[in-house]
Amino acid sequence: MLRNFKRMLWRGAETSRRLCSVASQTKDRAQSRSPARRFRGSKEASNLYHRITRLEPSNEGVIQAMNDWVVNKGKTICRYDISNFVNQLRKYKQFSLALQLLEWMERRGMHLTYGDHAYRIDLLWKAEGILSAEKYFTDLPKSFQNKFTYGALLNCYCNEKMVDKAMAHLRKMRELNLASNAPAYNSLMTLHMKLGEAEKVPVLAQEMKEKLIEPDSFTYNILMSSYASLKDIEGVERVMEEVKTRSEIDGNWTMYGSLAAVYIASGLFEKAQLALKELEQRNKPKDREAFHFLLSMYASIGNAAEVNRVWQSLKSAFQKTTNLSYLTMLQTLARLDDLDGLAKCFEEWESGCSSYDIRLINVLMGAYLKRDMIQEAKLLLEKATRKGSNPNYATFMMFVDFYVKNQDMDWALKCMDTAIPKVKEHEWKLYRERSYFLLKNFEEEKDVDHAEELYRILKRANCLDQEVYNFLIRTYVVAGMVEPQMRQRMEADGIEIMPETERLLESICPD
């Protein structure tokens, strides 16, 4: 078994050496959630949606799939279903796939609504960055630069905390009388919350009232969050009382979810449980996300009995229990530190699963490693690999943490090396931070050998930067060792030698 595990890591390390520029492989910012495979529509539409969700986000896979469906197979797809595809893919953070659908619609000469253009701005920002979103907005005909598209770009600026651009854009919206609506105010509220200015959110809410602008559910949610940040529970409850006067919003379970979360964060568990009961009453028609939220909230307050009750209710409410539901339950049981329940739930999922989802395997593996059950974790990983489930970045980082905790730095670094081909674009920042953590550890331990090994791993991954070298040089300094070639190494790696680094180099590169 151990030999198999070593072989797996060795093969991964060999692969990583051939993929030194893996950091530029994908453009999607966030793919932490896989899109739901089931689609509520006709069987034909469901089949097409299922096919799209299996595609890689890069290139033009969606466009090719849609053309094959319509042109080669001669099948039809209505605009309503395509719009639902886009909404579902956005919900599950598959931004590039959703963007390609809108592009296909345009290429086919289908009329794009104002809402479609607004979605496209949002998707371009999330998939490609703010510059792409700005360019798309600027290139739109003036007739399409309206409250929807202006509002979409304002939301991008606010979420990116680009204060100057957001304010300039808002002034233009006000000049055009496009800012007197709830979405515009919601974006401003979001900006203030991101800037740590929660006290400004109630002021904006009052301004909306004075201008007779009706708040929507997002307005109420963020207003409640602002009061919670200010530790004003009475303010939160006043907002909820107002919500109850709005029947079209009071029926939304998410409002009670926000209220419960505020109570839990404030340690008001009895009030939280009452809010969660209200949430259940409003979960009609049944929404999986509501059940998932309930599981998470009850785990937060350590109520295992309610967790199990909600889990049974979820399974009874739907014909099929999805991987995402099992994942949520497994994570919930892990939070409750219930290893027996976790193993039992995993076996239940495993007995009927159609695909061996690494995310679920990682939860049980993480529970094993937390308890130093390394042999069980390795067996599970080998079993998953045999069943065609490929370990991901998170898999190997769990092993890194385990080996660091047990002071086995050789194996920790082997796992860091093996993880490289698995790192997605949005995970590189985390990988760097983990590398800095290890380098700091090596510096504190005066461990030059392991610091150099991690340097070599990062070099193969094209992850070298000023900070890596500073850690490495400081490790030499505290260890009282010299490295006469360090300055030449930095120059060869294209790293600029800053004044701070120059001072360190003087200690280890004597003339």
UniProtKB/TrEMBL annotation:
The domain of life is Eukaryota
Q: What's in the keyword line of the UniProt record? A: Mitochondrion, Repeat, Transit peptide
* Family annotation (Pfam families): PPR, PPR_2
Localization (cell): Mitochondrion
- What start and end residues bound the annotated signal peptide? none
Q: What is the predominant subcellular site recorded for this chain?
A: mitochondrion
Q: Which GO terms describe its molecular function?
A: mRNA binding
Q: Which PROSITE patterns match?
A: PPR (PS51375)
Query: Which InterPro entries does the UniProt entry name for this protein?
Result: PPR_rpt (IPR002885), TPR-like_helical_dom_sf (IPR011990)
A GO cellular component entry from the record = mitochondrion
Q: Where are the PPR repeats?
A: 146-180, 181-215, 216-246, 357-391
Family from the record: Belongs to the PPR family. P subfamily.
What is the designated name of this protein? Pentatricopeptide repeat-containing protein At1g02370, mitochondrial-like
